[in-house]
Structures are given as C-alpha cells and as structure tokens.
Batch of 2 targets.
Target 1
Amino acid sequence: MDDRPHKTHRPATSGGKVAKKEKGKEKQHGFNDKAFAPMSGRNADRQGRRNVERDQTRLHVPLVNRTPDDDPPPVIVAIVGPPGVGKSTLMKSLIRRYTKQSLNEIKGPVTVVSGKKRRLTFVECNNDLNSMIDIGKIADLVLLMVDGSFGFEMETFEFLNVLQSHGFPKVIGILTHLDLIKKAATLRTTKKALKKRFWTEIYQGAKLFYLSGVINGRYPDTEILNLSRFVSVMKFRPLVFRNSHPYLLADRLEDLTPRELVRTSKGKCDRTVTLYGYVRGTNLRLGTKVHIPGVGDLDIKDATALGDPCPLPTADSEKRRKLSEKKKLLVHAPMSDVGGVMYDKDAVWVNVPGNFTRGNNEVYQGEGEQMVMDLQDVNSTLEDAVSKSQIKLFGSSSKPLTTDSAVNQDIDMDDASDDEDDDGTDDFNSQDEEEDDQSGIDSDEEDEDNLFDNDEEIHRGIQNTGRSSHRTSIRTLPSSSKKQRADIEYADSDSDLGNDDDLDFGGKRVRFGGDEDRDIPSDDGGELYEGEDEDEDAHEDEFAPKWKANLSQRAEAASSRKARQKDWTKLIYSTSLTAEEILHGEKQEQKSDVEMDEDDLFQVKKTTGDDAEALDMSKESVEKEELKKWEDEDMLESIRHLFITGGDGPLGEGGQDGEQDNEPFGADDEDDEDEDAEPQPSSSNTTTSRADALAAKKAALKRKFDEQYDDPDSSKLDFYEEKKDEMARQLALNRAEFEGVDAESRALVEGFRPGVYVRIELTNVPCEMIENFDPTYPIVVGGLLPAEERFGYVQVRIKRHRWYSKTLKNNDPLIFSLGWRRFQSIPIYSLDDHSIRMRMLKYTPEHMHCYATFYGPVSLPNTGFCAFNSLLGDTPGFRVSATGVVLDIDRSVKIVKKIKLTGVPYKIFKNTAFIKDMFSTALEVAKFEGANIRTVSGIRGQVKKALPKPEGTFRATFEDKILKSDIVFLRAWYSIQPRKFYNPVSSLLLSDKNKWTGMRLTGQIRRDEGIKTPLNVNSTYKKIERPARRFNPLVIPKKLQASLPYASKPKRMKPQQHETYLQKRAVVMEPEEKKAIALLQQIRALRKDQVARRKEKKGEKKVERQKKLVREEAKKGEKDKERKKDIMRMAGQKSKRDADMEDGRGRSKRRKT
Amino acid sequence: MAQIGSIVQFSGHQHLRQRLVLSILSGKHVRIDKIRSEDKNPGLRDFEVSLLRLLEKVTNGTIIEISLTGTAILLKPGIISGGPITHDCPLSRSIGYFLEPIIMLSPFAKKPVHLTLKGITTDEHDLSVDLLRTVTLPHLQLFGISDGLELRIKRRGAAPGGGGEVQFLCPVVKQVKTLNFIEPGKIKRIRGIAHAVRVNPQFSNRMIEAARSILNRYIPDIYLYSDVYKGDESGKSPGYALSLLTESTTSALHCAEAISEPGVAPEDIGLKATRALLAEVNRGGCVDRKHQTLVLLMMVLGSEDVGRCRMGEPTPRTIQFLRDVQSFFGTSFKIVSADTSDPECTHLLYSCYGTGYVNANRTLA
C-alpha cells in the first residue's frame, strides 16, 4: 500500500480561496513580536521567573546510562497485583497483542519484540512478598493491577513501599473488574476515589488505565492497544543501584549435574546449574560473585554469550517504519508452553499438533517439526552414516577429511546432517580469516596460504591422535558467533559444538587458528603444539608431518620480524613467563619453553636462585652502561625534540606534537582523529602535510581566540550541559575502544555488556533449588561488587513505617531487604547523644529516624532498604515495618547504654561521705577514681579513694552535705555489640515458598510450643506497705525562746474566755425598720417560689429532650444496621467471587483499606 | 553462608606490598607462603613485619596471621579506617617503602589519613620523600584526588642513622576519576631539589651546577632548589641527594634521582641524576616507570568506563602487578602499541575497563 505514489497536492492558483489567503497574508508579516509580549513589566518579570523555574525543574542529576543504546536488553515489565485481579489475563492479552499468539499457560518470563528498537520481558509477580521484593528490584516498568470493584489492598501498598526503598521504577496503574460496578455514578466515584489514592501514592498525574471487561478470556483489544502504546513510548531513567550492578532475570534454568551423582546421592548433592538470561545493568564480569535472592551467594564458574533467542530486527531486515508481521511472531518464553516447544526443568519437549505419522500434511509443519519428522526417514544406521559422511574442515579445503572408522572419537562429530557441517566449517573459516586480519600486518599473501595449509594439517593431526584431551575440548558449548534459534534447540546438537571455541591445552587458552600465536616471539602457540606433539610421538613415531620440520626456523624468523611488536596482552595474561623473560631476549624464552612442555603434568620449579634477595623496590637500579651513553653529545641532541624548544622531531609525529603544543590536556578526541588522520599525508607528501598541519594549527588558534574574546557565552555550556557532554564523550570512548576487538577478548577485558544473552554456570547450588523449582517465582541473578561480598557491621538510618502497628524493639530480629539480598539480622537501635556517643534505644522512636546497627553483608553507603518483621502471608496488617538507608560500614561498633551504679552513705562528715554498696572491690573503685557521682536530690560529687576496711567502700566529696537517706549514684556507659547473626531468607529453596520462617521471638516460640513464661518470684508485684512517717513537733527550748528577738519568737496566745460585745448586745428595732425587714422577707419568699417553679419546668423539658434523643438514636441505629448489612452483603459476594476465581494458590484478601 | 571470602594464593617474598594493597582494596583474603623459605635467614624481614604492623594500624578489623617460621602469612583484610597514625619505620628501608602502599590505600579510607612516619627519608632503593611529594602526589591529582593532599617533610634523615619525619595527609574520595591520558606532550619545565644534611651546604650547589651543565641546553625554565636542613631537622647521619623532574605541556611527569655514595664527588651525583633523568625522558610516555603501578591501579579502580594511558614498556614489577590485578579484581588490560602505523614506536597504550570501585568505607554524612 505504501509503495504506491500518492498524488501530490496542487494548491489552487485562482478563486476565492486564493483571495482569502492573500488577504490573510497582508496582515501578518512574519513573526508577530507583540503577540507573546507581556502587557506590563510586572507580568514580564513574573513570566521570566516562571520560565527560569520551569527550566530548573526540568533538570535532573545527570546519571550515566550504562545500558547501550544499540541492542539494549529487553525492558522488564512486571505485572503485579493481588490474586484474582486479572494478571494472567492481562499478560495473555499483551502477548497476544505483540505476537499474535495465545499462550495457554504462562510460567516465568516471556520476551517479545515490541518494536524496532525495543523488546519487552513480561513477568508476572505472584502474591508472595518475597517475589514482590525481587520483582521490585529488577522491574523497569510495573503494571500495578487493582481490582476496581474492591479497591486497594494491603499488598499493593506494601509493594509500593518496597519499590520506594529500592529505587522507584515507572508504574502504570490498571483498574480491572470495572464491569462489576453496574451503576454509572458509582463507577465514576470509584474511579475518582481510586485515582486520588493512586496519585497520592505515586505522583500527581500518574497514569491509570481502566480495563472494562473480559472478552474471550482477554481484555478488549482496543484497551490493550492503548496500553501497549503507552508501554512502547515509555522512557526510563537509570536507577543508581541497577546502574552499578549487573543482573539478569533468569528465563531458563538447566541442571547440569551428572545424573549418576544425583542418583547415588539420592538427589541431595550440590548441583551444577546453568541459568540463561539477558545481562542488564552494568557489564557482567567473570571472577565476581552473584547473589540469587532466596538462594544465596554463588560463584560463577563460567559464562558464555549465546545468540540472542529473541533478536531485534536488524537494520537491513527492517527498512520500514513499522515492525514487520514476521518479526511479530517472535516470542521467547522457555518456561511456558510456547509454540509447541516446552522447556522443562532439564529437557526440551516439542509438541507437534497431530501426530508423527508420515503423510500427515494437513497440519502446518514448521522447520522444527520437519526435522523431527525427518528423523523417521533414516534408513541407514549411524555407523553407515559415519562411514559415508564427508567432512571438510574448511570451505577452502580441497578434499574432505578421511576418517578411520576405527577411531571412535569421530562419532562425536558425525551424527548430524551435512549441511550443518558446512555451516560449522564456514564459521571456522571466517574466524580464521578474522584472526589473520588482526595479526597479519606484515604477513604477505603467500605466507598466509602457507599458514593455512599448516592449520589444516594441524587439524588433521589432531583428529588422528585419538587423545581424550582433544575430544573433550571439541565438545564445548555453542559459542556466541553461532546464531541460536529461539525455539529450536537442535543447534545444540553435537555436530556444531565447539568448532569455533578455543582448545584448552593444559589450562592455557590457545586458539586453533594459531597463526597469531606464532607471531609472538615466545611462540607459545607453536611451541605448544610441538610440545603436545612430542607427547604424541611417544606412541606415534612414524607420524612426523613436514610442517614440524622447519618450525623452529620459522618461529625464529617470525620472532625476529616482530621483535618490536609484541602482543603484550597475551604475553602478560596467557603465558606463565616471568616478567624478565617477557622483557628480555629469546634465550630465556627458549629455556622456558622447554620447561613449559611438560607443565601439563609437573609444576615448573621457578629459577629463583638469582633473585632470591631481590628487594621489593620501586626505583630501578640504574645501569652504568645506560648512563654512559648520555655522555655522548649526539645522544644528548637526539632528545631535543622532546622539549618545547626543540621544534619538530625526527619523525612524523613531531609535527603532530608541535601542533598540539598549545592544546590543553584533555582534548583527546581531537587528538584521536589527528592520530588517525596523520599518517596518510605524511607518507604521501611532506609539503601537503606541512600545509595541513599549518592549517590545523591556525584553526586551533582561531578557535582559542574566539573562545577568549569573541563570544564567551556561545562556547560556554552551563554545568549541566557540560556534565552531560562529558558523559556522552566517555560513553562514546567506551564504545570505540573495543569496537574492533573480537568477542572473546572483549569479554575478558570488559565482561558481558548489557543486552547480551548469556548462559551462566553456577556450581555448588543447593539441591533444593532444583528440587523445589517453581517457574512462577522469579529467579534474579544479581552481581555483587567486591565490597558487597564482605561482612561487617552496617549502620543504617531507619524509621519505623507509620502504617506498621507496633514499635520495633531493640535486639528483635528483623528481615532486611538490602541490595540484592533478603536476610534476617538483629539490629541495635541507637541515637546520637549530643555527638558524644551513640546511645542505645530500647525501642524505635515514634515519627523519627534513628540509627540501627546490625551484622550482615556490606552494602555501599546510600543504599536504600526496607525491613519486615515477618514475610508470611497470613500476617495481619501492614508488613513493611521500617525503611531506611545505609550510612556506614565498619568492623567494630561503639554503641553504649546507660548504667547507673548506686550506693548509700554510711558515714557523713561535712561535705565528705563514705559510700558503700556501689563497688565490691577496691580495684573497681580505683578504676572509677575521679568519676562524677550524684545524689537523688541533686547534690553533685566525686569519687575520691577506696577505703581500706570494708572492701568496696570509698570516700567521696560533695558540693554540700548529703543526708543519710540519700541514694548516691554513678552514671556510666556500657558498650554493647550487635549480635553476629545473619540468616539469609532462603525462600526459593523451600517447597512451600511463602512459608519461610526465620528466627522467632522468645514469646512466639513459647506460644508455638505452649510453654508458660517462667515467673521469677522476685519479679511479682506485691502490695507496697509504706508506714506513715511521723514527724515530732518542733520544740524550741525555753532558754532559746527567751533569747530570740520578738519577730522570731513563736507566737502563742490562749483562746478568749469572755463573751465579746457583739455577742452580748441586745437589738431593738424601730417600727419603720421592722416594716422594711418584713417586706424584704416577703420578697425573698416570692423569689424562692419563682426559682422552684422554674426549676420544675426545666426538669420537664429535659425529660422531653431525652425522649427525643432516644428516638433519634433508635432511628440512626436502624440506618447503621442497614448499611452494615449492605457492606456484609458486598463482602460476601466478593469472597464468593474470589472463591470462584482463585485457583487456590494465593491467599485470600485480608481487608479493605 | 559464604562468609569466607575467596583466598588468593601467592608464593615468594617478592611483590609483597602490591599484593597486600590489592588484597585490602579488593577485600579478598591473601595467603603468601614460601617467603624466603630457601634462604639462610628464612621468613619475613623486619621491614616487612613493620609494614604489616602499619597496615594493621591503617585498617580496622584486619587479621594477619604469620606462621611460626615467618615464611607464610595470611591476611584477612578489614576496612581502611585512616585517621591520625604514627609509625616508626625500621632503618632497613626508607620511608618510601612504607608510604607507597599507603598512598594507594588512603584515598579509600573512612577518615582522611594523617600519617606521621619516622625513619630514613632518602635511600637508594625506594622513592625519596622529595619525589613522592613532587611526582607521586601529582599523579593522584590525575584521578581527582587533590584537595588536602600533602606531604610535609618535617625532618630529613639520611641512610644509616635515619631520624627523618614526614607527615602525609590525604583526603578521602568516593570514586576516582577515569584517566584518559594519551598525549605525552613536550617538556616545558624542569625542577629539582638538591638537599644536603650534616655535610657542607655547598654540596647541594655543586650538584645543581653539574646538573645545569647538561640541562641548560634544552629549556630555560629550570629551577633547581637547594634545600638545606640544619640542626635537629637534619637527622642523624650525613648525606645528600639530587632529585629531578620534568613536566610536559600535558603535565606528564618524569623523574630521577641520585643519592650520595661514599667516595663520589657531588658533581658526579648531579651528573648521574641528570643522565638518569634524560634516560627516563627518552623512554617517554605519559607516566614514568616508577609510577606505572600506581597509575594502573587507579585506572582499575576507576568508574565503569574505559580508561586509557600511554606509557613505555612495563617494568617487571608492572608485569607482575598486572597479573596480580587480574587475580584480585579480574580486570585485564588491553595493551597495544600506541602508534600502530609506526613500527619503531615503543610506547604502549594501556586501556582497561574500570571496576567501578566505590569507596564503601566512606561514611555518609
């Protein structure tokens, strides 16, 4: 459709439209300045501020993205939600959308190609908290599914909190089961409420999708299409932790343990396991450890890059804008049942529709099926096939390899069809040529041919030896260059194994196409062959090929030819030559070669005699001879070009140097180009090169001048841009440095890049991992940094989660999710006490951070973590108990707790007192001499000296006289150490993966075992009987009283004996007065009556009101009852639905939040 | 589970320092046996024991086990703690022997290192304190370790008697920068320090004269300082030395030095130092031979990017160092000729992919 040319648009040249356009054009001449100009100065100011602020919000801390832009690993899309919410349905719908295939049963990760530049790995997360933690650490995008008809559940919030502490990936919310809400208004309010909650949890404006209902077991196609569009344009910001650790999500697991070993040990032996997956994060390097959460720390025995099972469309296969339909069919899901291929734990099953009968042509037969069918067509035995088959080692080989049928080792090679063999040899050949390109700088054509012949002969020789070492080395694994097809495992068949892998001669890596090796003066490759062959000669004397005849001469010639161009990398890393032998002449090398011949069997004894007393020193001893030559005047002149005054040197590089004199250090990119560009002109014509150099110099000067004077702003970038540029430059350099290097040495130097599909071989894997393998639990392989393999005390800043209902107690075990690891440890909580000491806390403070210190594997400072008291599914309430960040790593800790030593005075002088019961020996007192002490009443003092007589008593002085009843105490600090307890959460090793229990609390053990808490009699509460204190009256002696001044004398008077006047007098009233009093009495009586009546009335009203209230209460209660009924009915429906939907593996809902 | 870090095994007494340093940095345990086991005087020497003691002081939680005969040691490294430390170096080796590994470790300590070392400041085996101050420390600046990096020479102490004292201050860094140093540039200045203790102060001037007689022909920017310490600051034995360095336009440093020998005139010492310097300059590269290991180590410890450096041929010590780095960190270098078009080019381009080593010891403020 696209190829047909469209009719071009022809604008009208006359008529009304044209006139209208013309008219419009008259009005605006170009850009209208006034259109966006602010009206007032204030507005202008405001607008300017706003723009600047907006610019600042755009900025983020520049982070290096270690994931390569070309061929990135698939994006991990995790589908998370409570059971019964529709996770599997969504995954099926999405996979259907991308691959047009319906998967019946999805287990483990599924990788699909979603676009020209993007692949997606879908992984479904079950409801186990362990899985949620692991998924949270690796997911790039989380599709968080929420049952719209039910609301958010606790697990959702727990998962969000886990995400928060491990770097927040992108989250898209998806509301399902919205079809269950029948009323439109309810639907609207539900959506609104859920959206509001979701936004507060993620960020304002976070994307929330609504999926209405299920049609044909899938969500509606349009809704899925919309969702997939959002997924495909999603941008990801690198997360710090993932950007510094390599990791992979294993999508396939194979057990390589010998069956016999498993059988004899009844399956209890440690296993050798291979895991497959895309490398993500940073480069995965050999020699480091990996951690598999739920299993433990494991050593990588071997890692190989495999062909991509789900490759991105290449540039030439996809010229078009859209992904072709063919590519859409690619899906890689080894653990699920995809396209008829089932990867079981340790076997691959091919499922062919119909049956394997010949002539069954109605079913479409793919390539794989065809191959299986073809197996039935065999009409000759294997032996016949072997005897007939012809193997050409190289495409250029003139005649096929002739085999001796008695040599049974060839069977390894021959049980495959011919075309595959051709493949293999082609590969081989191409690789040989590649190597030639690398090494053959000066090797002329004829020489190359010669070498080729030799190679062939070497191979033939090896084929004939029949030694087991060769055979095993041939049987290695499929290598990177071989394209492995996604869904067919036949590529693993023996025939094409290892023909482009290295052969292993006694632990040294030597390439088969060994012409490169022969270039090395040490000629370890060539000589090695010789060595090997000498062994062979022992039993095959007559076999002496002609290539050996002149080998030594050729080697010599080669070494003299390439004396200068040593392959240092190879010499240093892949030979056992001593440093002196590498640096100096060949005589030593010859000697060493002789030694090396037998180092298959024997350890070479190093000749350490002469340098036994060589000192480990950094200054080389200068040789007299070398210094002597500097007495020569010519010699002195010869290095003049190395100085700035020296001008151009003797070589072409002199000009280059001169040109870069003025360049500041660090302008390396330009230098690179110069280096590349320089040699050609210098070789062709000196005059042009000089002119060029001059021009370049001028250009550089001009640039410098411009930078200084012309426009200082234009060339200057702001800090942010500068940093970003720097990063981009470094990344470009990283890419460029290993561009031309072959894959193997590249893996040696830089490891496996992100995006490479690797196979990791792990040894000593606990057998339970294999026995209890469940593909629905994700297997994450996290690479560890060297520091993270160590153990130590980790100090963290921690805060109890505000939704966690209990406080955290000191010395209670806590399960941490820190780095890749999940483990239980025992923290000690502390707070900084005035920057003097770290003081232990018994409980975590409310609404505040505190420190915690625990023993465990080290993580880098600034790593976030979250902690749990229990990971079990049936734990009530919110399970994330604390979150925090790592602050410090150490091998010792200094946390103290307060201890008060108390004593009582037994003899008190003026300001001095003798204190007993604080210490038990004089030695203890001596330790505390000069310490501050205090009484309860606040009188301060000091410990002076131990008293000789009652042991442990001492003399102390105070600032005032203390009382006999005072308690004296000494405040001291007692240092405590966290317990060295580390218990990794080995959930993947259990058959019941969500039932992991670590160390329990004492109380819990007692509860579980039904043991009563032991009761100390002294700890029981008894009634405290405090006798009332009797104080004697204060008696002042008469004598003293007499001498006191009047003011201080106690005033003591006898009570009055006689009646007073007021009591004695009689009252006689006037008639006027009498009248007035009577009136007053009457008024009072009236008033009293009035008040009484009023009160009565109020009482009546009160009773009435009470009645009314009771009536209202009753009404309200009725309403309440109805509402409760409603809720219960809904809950009942919901649980009924759950029971219908659930397949019984997840746990039921806990409660609505 | 897997509490015991993997053990790296070595034998022989050679390259002890770099192996200990690599072990402490990588956290891998190291076991070195057959230490002079064939010797008449088997086992560790006093300076090696002293070095182990110093490393114990600098670190926290390090466990060092020395076998009964002293021919085998096992080092379980702890964390590098730093802080104020004082150490008396034995008179069998100079301060440089002890300071070199400390310089490699101290940027990755928990607290800034403030180390006081007492002993011999200059001898014929190790870098003198002058070179450490003027050449080694600037090399650290290439990796972004600069603020507060200082070596103070409090007292000088010549060979048999010693009595010198230096203070080394080093800041801590989170991560070292990736090096990209491929342009050696041209030499723009020459500096030098001639010192004389407990001898005629004129000796240093005589050395300077001799050196200038050769160097004056190249560039005018030559400053050779005469550094005379007197009284208590001059240590216990007489001695004098001349250390020279050249700096290029891209701040590549090359250095050489010569120290007093009995029966040799100061002029000859001056000439010897100068000729050694010219030999070093002639070898070229961006880093001289004495500092190859330091620079390569810092490149390995850089961020996960490609670091490049142009140097001359590796010394035997460097070759062993490269192998040791591979066994500790698993990092190998790509070493190719710096100029592939020129067969006469002796310079090599060392490039490696940094391990992304982050100073885990550093406390988060």
Target 2
Amino acid sequence: MDYFAQQLINGLVLGSIYGLIAIGYTMVYGIVGMINFAHGDVFMIGGFIALITFLILVSIGLTMVPVILLLALLVAMAVTALYGWTIERIAYRPLRHSFRLAPMLSAIGMSFVLTNFAQVAQGARVKPVPPIVTGGYTLYEGPGGFVVRLSNIQIVVVITTVVLLAIFTWLVARTRLGRDMRACEQDQTMAALLGVDVDRTISMTFVIGAALAAVAGMMYLLYYGLVDFFMGFVAGIKAFTAAVLGGIGSLPGAMLGGLLIGLIETLWSAYFSVEYKDVAAFSILIVVLIFLPTGLLGRPEVEKV
Amino acid sequence: MGPNNILSVENLTMRFGGIVAVNELSFAAQRRKITALIGPNGAGKTTVFNCITGFYKPTTGAIRLQHDDGAQFELQKLNDFRISKIGKVARTFQNIRLFPGMTALENLMVAQHNTLMKASGYTFLGLFGLPSYRKAEKEAIDLARFWLDQVNLLDRADEAAGNFPYGDQRRLEIARAMCTRPALLCLDEPAAGLNARESAALSELLLAIRDQHGTSILLIEHDMAVVMEISDHIVVLDYGVKIADAAPQAIRDDPKVIAAYLGAEDEEEAVAVMEGEI
Amino acid sequence: MDTALPDMPSTSRKIDIAFILKKSLVSALVALVLFSLMIGIRTEAGPSGQLTYWTRFGDLAMMVVAVFAGSIVIEWLRHWWGPVETIRVVPPMAEKALSLAGRLVAPALLAFTFLVPVIFYDQRYILDLGILVLTYVMLGWGLNVVVGLAGLLDLGYVAFYAVGAYSYALLATNFGLSFWICLPLAGILAAFFGVLLGFPVLRLRGDYLAIVTLAFGEIIRLVIINWQSFTGGPNGVSGIPRPSLFGIPMTAADDGFAARLGIEFSPTHRIVLLFYLILALALLTNWVTIRLRRLPIGRAWEALREDEVACRALGINTTTTKLTAFATGAMFGGFAGAFFATRQGFISPESFTFHESALVLAIVVLGGMGSQLGVALAALAMIGGFELFRGLEQFRMLVFGGAMVLLMIWRPRGLIGHRAPTVFLKDNRAISSDLVKEGR
C-alpha cells in the first residue's frame, strides 16, 4: 500500500508533465486539425533553454532558488513561444488550406530539423544538472521501513501545473483571445467574416502551446535532472497519446489523458516491468480507442449521412 | 405484409438520446410503385431512410422487405452493407456522395463490386486476367454504359465525377444506385437544386425506372410538382409521426396535411405549395 | 530561417527596398532571439559530470547575418515570382507534352535501371546506392496501397518491414530455411500482422488511425528490443544467410556460382544478384498493384478513400476491404524486410525506427498519392538526395527535415498531380488530383 501510494505520487507528477505537453497538441489539433509532430521537439527545446538560462543565472552569482526558477521559467516560456510562432509561420501557414497530409509531413520534417538543430548546436551528449530543488516531506513511515515521500520538486511540478492550467483555462474561457480561438475552432471562414483575425489567433495558439511545452520541458529538467536532444520524440508521442486518450480537442481531456498515461507508465514499471512500460501505455491507447473511438472526453463524432 | 408490398415499416421508433426522431411509424411501399415520403424539414424523413438502409439501427420496430421471388428480409437485423448486397436496397444521398476523384464510369463500376468480386474469384483469379473475369467486366461496362445513356451522361463517361455540374451529379448518383440492380431504390431529395427542365427529366427517368425495370422507388422530396406527378402513393410525416398515408389526390386535399406541412399560417400559400406552384 | 510577414498584395513588380529590408530585419531579430541561447551558448558535461558552458557569439552573429541575407534574397525572389498563392494555369498544349513525356519517363527509367549493373559494374558504391533506392521504391509502392489507394494513414509501416526482416532472419538462423522459402513466409507473416493491426483500427479515422499505427510500430520495435531470448534484443540477429541463386551459393567455393560458370569469383556477383533481386521484387509489387487497381478490390480501395459511407450504401464490405488493403501493403513491406535482412546479413531494432516510417510516408506523399511513377521518382530523389549530403553527416537530418518542409510547401499534392482512371470508354484522361480525396 505504501509502495502504491508512492508510485501514485510519482505517476501523477509525471502525468502533469505529459498533460502540459498534451495541451499543446490538443489545442493545435482543435484549431487547425493537424498533428503538430514538432511539438515534442518544442518541449525539448524548452528544456534546453531552461537549462542554459539556469547556467547563466547561476554563473552571474544569483543564489535565490525561487528567483532563479521564476526567471528561467519566464525566459524559457518566452523564447520557446517564439519557436512555436516561427514554426507555424514557416512550416504550417503556407499549407493551411492544403491537402491534409501535407502539413503533417511538413510537421514531421520540422521535427527532424529541431532534433538535429539541438544535436548540432548543443552536442549529442546528455546534459545533466545538479538538483536545484532539494528536500521534501515524509508523508508516512511504514512499519517495514518503507517511506512515502513527497519531494519539494514534486510539489513544484504539481503546483506549477495547476497554476498554469488555471490561468490557461481562464484565458480560453474568459478572454477575447479565448473566444476567438473557440470561434476559429468551429468555423474559420465564419470567424474571419465576423472580424476575428484568424492568422493571429492561430499564431497565438501555437505560442501558448509552445509556452506550456517549455514549462513541461523545465519541469522535466528539474525532475529528472537532465536533458538531451532526443527526449522530444518519446515524450511527444506519449503526450500525443495522452491527448488522444483524453479525446483530442478537449483541454480537460488532455490533462486527464496525461495523468492516466503517467500513472499507467509508473505503475506498470513498478509492478510489472520497466522495459514494457511504453508498450503498456501504447496498448492501453489502442484498447481505449477500440471501445471509445473519440477518446475519453472527446465529442462523439456523429456520422452525418 | 401482403405480397403486393415490397417494403413494410412496422412501428419504427428511432431515439437519439432524449429526442424521438421517429415515433411508432408504420407504412408500406408497394411493389413496382413510387412511394413518396414527405413532410416539413426535421420531420424525420432522412432518419427513416437511414434506418431502412442500415446507417442507423432503429430503437424499436421492424422493417420487412420482400423480393419478387418471395425472399424475405428483416432489414433492421442486417448489417449496413448487406442491406445493399443481399437486400438489394440502393440509395442516394441528400448531399450527393459520389466518388469525386473517379470517373463516372468508375463510379458505376464500383457499384457492381459484389458481382465483379465474385467473377474475379475474390481477386485471386482476376489477378491473372482469366477470360471469365474479362467477360464479367465487359458485361459490367455494358451495364454502366446503359445507365449512363439512360441518365444522358454517356459523353461524360470518362470525366471525373467531381467535375460534373450539380444536376448531372444527381443523375449520376441515381445511375450508380441502379447499377447495383436494386429491388428497392431509395432517393433522398433527388430534385433538390434542379431547375424546372432538369426536374421534368428526372420525373421521366424515375417513371422509366419503375415501368421498364420493375424497380420500386421510395422517395423523399420537397418539390411537390415532382411528387404529385410521379407518386403512386404518399406518406406524410410530421415530428416523426405519420399524419397521412394516401394517394396523391387525397393528400392534396387533406386539411391536416396542409395545416401541418405549412404551419397553417397562410392556407392559400399552403395550397399553392401543395399544387406545386411554389 | 525565413520568418515572412503576411503577403502584401503586390500590385506592381517594382521592388520596394525599404519593405524588403524591414521584413528581413524582423526575420533577423527573430533569429537572434531564437538562436541567442541555443547557438550563442554551448553547454557540455565536463569530465566530473559538472556542466560547463562557453560562448559562441561569433557563430551566433554569423547565423543572424545569414538569416538576414537569406531573407533579403527570398523576399526579392518573392517579388519576382508574385504572391505564393498565384495559381499557374498550365496551357493544355504544355499539359499534353508533359503527359507524353510522362509516358516516356517510366519505360526509360526502367530500361536504365535494368542496365545499371552493366554500366556501373565496377562501381560498388553506385550498385549499393541503387539497391537502397530500389528497396525504398518497393516500400513506397507497398505503402502506397494503404495510404495512396485506400486512403488509410499508416504511420507504422516500418513494423511490417521489421516483421519481414525478423521472420527471415530467425527462420534462417534457427531452422536453416533458405531465402526462397522464407520470402513468401515473411510476406505471409507480415500480412498477418497487417490484419492484426487492421482489426482494432477499423473504426478509427484520420488522426486517430495515424497515432494508433504509430503506436503499433513502436510496440513492435519495443518488443523486439526487449524480448531478448527470441530476437536478440538490441544486439540484433547476425549471421543471416546471404541469398543463393536458386540454390547456387554466391561464394568462392567449388560449388559456387563463379566456379560453376567457370569464371573468376568476384564479390560483385552477389551485389548484382541482390540488385536484380530487389528489382524483381519491386517490379512484382508494381505489377500486382497495377493489376489490383483494375480489379474490383482495387476500385473498392479507391472508392473507400473517396467516400466510405457511399461504399457501404453500395454493398461493399468496408471491413474486409480495409483489411485486405492493410494485409496487401504489409505483405510487400514483409518482402522488402526479408530482402533487407538477407542483404545486410545483420539486423537490429535500430533499423526499424519511426524515422523509417516517416521516410516511406514522405516518399508516398511526395510522389503524389497513388501514383506509381511518382513514388519511384520520389524515392530516387529522397534517397539519392540524402546520399548527396553524406559528407555533411552531422547536418543530414537538418537538411532532410528542411527539404521535407520545403517540398511540401512547393508541391503539397506531390510530384505527379493526377490520377489515371482504371477503366475508360473512349478517352483515357487523367484526373486532376485536386478532385481526388485523401481518405481519412
């Protein structure tokens, strides 16, 4: 039971990271109807930028951890958002009204570009960082000596996720931008006729998605203490799996899917085998889609005849 | 069901969540006759079609079909594609569903899939171009040519269906349905978007299908001129319930139909529409 | 990187220098922000695991200047060419000439391919490259059945390639079965996996289908990596027998190919055999696909791509139609996999990553979905192009990914932009691919 509780905590933390990435997938899918294959790599870039910012901040003598974290978060979000914006401009906008597979292929190409760019620019070796947020609380000490711990970094990840989700939900539900986004999701032509700047709205969707991916990248960096140029691929596929599992296009679905994938992965590793954790996550995706073809919270697709 | 009826719908109910789209509907379509299903928008006509052709499973009720040779089917128990394959029920769609990237001829060849599939020995024999398959293919092309001629599209046989003007697409879809050699042809608003001349040609085509090919027709249509001219029998739906079921002349004079069909705001206008003037 | 602002409607072709400069300056600024940290600062883990960094402001400045200059060139070209959205109408005469040329390209290409081993007999490198290109031509043609004809988006095609390769490798190394017995077995096993994948995804559409096929591909790869006792895990399978010419080994032994013919042994003989083997397999794929397109099953695949609902209304069993498409495509992937195993003599899970699936899909889409010639040309362009950048090993994926983006923007419909009808009464006229649906 104690072991299970510990794994539950670990799974939820990992799930929060997946959920943050999944939101980017689901938003872009909702508004332009394409899988942004490069999104996993945007997450990776976010991790790198957070890492480099840390290094600079530490080397100029800053020692207050909360300040460092906040500054790094802001820089990573801003710069990565610009990556998201640029990618949309270069690779997706010219293909907006084209054949459906063309933007998907373009996205795959963009993903290769980003992976290789990071590899060339920062080298192929894994970049470790010393633990920045240390310490934690012991929640429970079992009679067998097993301890359920909640580390500070886990608290930071969960709180950051919750706060950002709250801000973000407010953004979509209450602001002009959110309204424009929902309008574009329904009908771009009509939205444009009613005075919504569709280009700008789509750009902003990519910007927000990339900023959230940067947050996920930084959380990953803090939690696992490393980044490498290839981490975007697997995390990206899993996050997309999470988005599909939750029902693509649905924001709460993305978060729910993320948490589920995180839990499945952690629990499977804990109780069955670490090697097959990804197989388990993907298999569950397939099984869920057989019974719920539009995911857990997705709108059922009514077949219009 | 009597032997004179090809189709009999019995106590058909279709619910979507809390909404009852069709409620305890019963009617019959006579063999070798044209039966029209009319009613205001949202009356549930297309839902009835979708139940008959297997795109929806009815909540309750039965849909019985009897071929000329006496073979009987309960359509609500057949899977979608089997209704066309075994039941010999063909349909067209309100928002035309052709294969736009394929030529008119190819569209009609796809309609003969099941015949050709058998002739090709489920692909394996056809792969080596056996003469028996080549003969079957030639026959299929001849049937396609015949129907292209019937709908006056023979010169456009090798053009992509997606390039056809609207009226031609409607006729091509009917030809495609006929290529499945149906016993019952279900047409969902075949005259929608057609001009007067095209509508007249359509009426002629449908009468020819009934008289020369022995195919029974079930028709949803808003164009009253067409309905009144060619229908042998009319069923009127309103809010998923049948409100009238009679010959065209009787329907024309039925005050209940006029009232329901047009909201009875303006009886003169209602009568005008029923007369096919608007 | 070009970060162009929205196109201004340019009424005149007069070059507005201030405008171009302004746009390029914005692009350069964006580049500065994007690259400042990623290029300006280089991080590396030191010997003790301590992370260190150094600055590379020179490189950063160079990149920003390059973006600025590139932007100017691109904007200037854009003024020359007019807005990107301009639709160029090809005159019918030109179209006729093009289609005539198109009809000649395929036979010429085929004749040339047959002669490659004769012309380049001494150039091992060219022969190897030819074999590689043909392998991808075959994979592209196989995937074309699924994606191009049936319109089912498959991002996990590499799984069938892997199944074929491992089938042959394991059957040959464990049971000593010959290549010619294993080849059909590999195809059948891969087809079986195709049906296995097909069943759960029958009801899925579009992007759900894409992600499930991608997941399937990853599952197969992960199982291969982890099921060490069966597949050899990450170490792969080595010592896979080379193919024989119907039982005559291509070795220097006394009963070898060279000895029997009484000619001097040369390792090139085997390469030439492999070349013609993959050529034959690819041509078989092509022949079968062309035949199938003209059979009811092939027409049903294309009809499925165009409109699934209409197919059902016409009495077509969409379940079996989809499964046969998956199985047929997978079978060809399996053949290609078996060939890959016998050619390499060694296989490991590294050869079957998502990257391969993406590459084959890119070949199919770039070729112009459904076009056999287009797929062959695209494979030649992609694999050949890839080879050109072999010297720039480090930047290969960068160039490859960038090329994919540019090619899609340049020709979203692929190289061959029309579909040939499968049957005609009088006039065999190609159909513009703008009308052709892309499946779901």
